[in-house]
Protein: Transcriptional regulator
Amino acid sequence: MKYQRLVMIFSFLLLLSACSQAPLKGQIEKVGLLVPDTINDQVWGTKGYKGLLNIQSTFGVDVYYKEGMVDKEKIVDAIEEFHKKGVNLIIGHGSEYSEIFNLISEDYPKTQFITVNGNKPQADNVANVTFKGEAMGFFGGMTAAHMSKTKKIGILATYDWQSEVDGFIKGAKYQDEHVQVLAEFVENWDDADKAVELYQKLKKQGVDVVYPAGDGYNIPVIEQIKADNLSAIGYVTDQSNLGSHTVLTSTVQHVDKAYSIIAKKFNEGKLNEQGEYSFDFKEGVIEMGKFSSTIDRAFLKDIESDIATYKKTGKLPNEK
Structure:
């Protein structure tokens, strides 16, 4: 009897252990990711793919991805292919999927569509994820203005509506009202040649710190900045590995973490009807990357305090 009792207890403990390691089961069946370019760009696409893998390991589901998804017909074909495989959560890794998801979602009522930085969802099964860019731009602008020797800094963004553009300018002016901020716009997320050309234009005007706020071209631009012995603010990922003396800091977006949060809500049936989710420093989705050792400790202490205050109050230093 004693032996049988020990066997039962041991079996029960094994069962508890197995349950604690079991994947989270819920509404997610399989997940598909559409990427406009590649998952190997080490910036935007790689972040999305990492998020997909996080979902796979957390929920124990099959996942699929498609690269180079920019043509509408190919996107529609990919959605149908995902559907046939049993995918019921599709993530369009970019704003370019917003319009087509809103149009096609009614044909797949049991599928949840997720877009990033897209338009307001027009259907119950479409949700949109946005990343607040003003604060990260603000702290990037503060850093750039503080470290500039020429008192001329530049932002090389894709479009003027990017909230990090306004934030960068405000942060720079808050740090030093005498600093001059020059802005150039690539008008294309992936046009590295034009971005480098515009950077050269900024350099000729005396800019010594540049914030290339575009994931498709910021690495080539930073490499050129490094060759010119100037300074940069990284974008989307912590880009200190491109040169600790070149990259003063980075404005980091943890897209992968945002996807995990959204997947968890969907899995639990808790996506709200409005379908819009915004992420910032408070959620830990956005943060500043590693600061360069060239930055003085007094400034680091001040900006770290400002960031901590923003997380608690939602107010930037110029709004206190």
Remarks:
- The chain has a mean pLDDT of 91.
- The chain has ten helices and twelve strands.
- The domain at 134-253+290-319 is CATH 3.40.50.2300 (Rossmann fold).
- Residues 2-21 form the longest helix (20 residues).
